[in-house]
Amino acid sequence: MRLVVVTVGALLLLGSATAPAFAKAPPVALSDCLLPEVRPDVVLLACGDGTQSFDALRWTRWTRRSARAVGTAEINDCTPSCVDGQVHHHRAVLLADRPRVCGGRWLFTRVRLFLTARPGGGQPLGQIVMCHV
Questions:
Q1: Within the chain, where are the H helices?
Q2: pTM listed for this prediction
Q3: Residue numbers of the domain that contains 90
Q4: Residue 121 pLDDT level (bands cut at 50, 70, 90)
Q5: Would you tell me which of 31, 46, 94, 109 could form a disulfide with 36, CB atoms 3.0–4.6 Å apart?
Q6: Residue 13 CA to chain centroid, in angstroms?
Q7: Does residue 17 sit within a domain?
């Protein structure tokens, strides 16, 4: 009986060692001024002074080619200066695409922010290239 248990155990180990390993590719991350993340809650768009950020309410798409979120853009008007400026909140859509390997990790390298609740909202407020390749 002991021989049967050892033989079955050895076969199970051998079977798991020879089984093909289908590793799933890691998701593409979004890197802002901080560390790369998948589906971040907040995306900081102005690294120098923090005057533009995006709060993601919901990620509506996240694939290996692109990502899309709806949420709120927080933009400081920097009037009369960024220290004394007013922060304005706008409904917005954030689009990330152009995935590339950057620093050994797949990242979306272009981020565009569209303000949806003002005239001209169809034009991107800005385009940020996160990794120059």
A1: 2-18
A2: 0.74
A3: 27-129
A4: low
A5: 31
A6: 39
A7: no
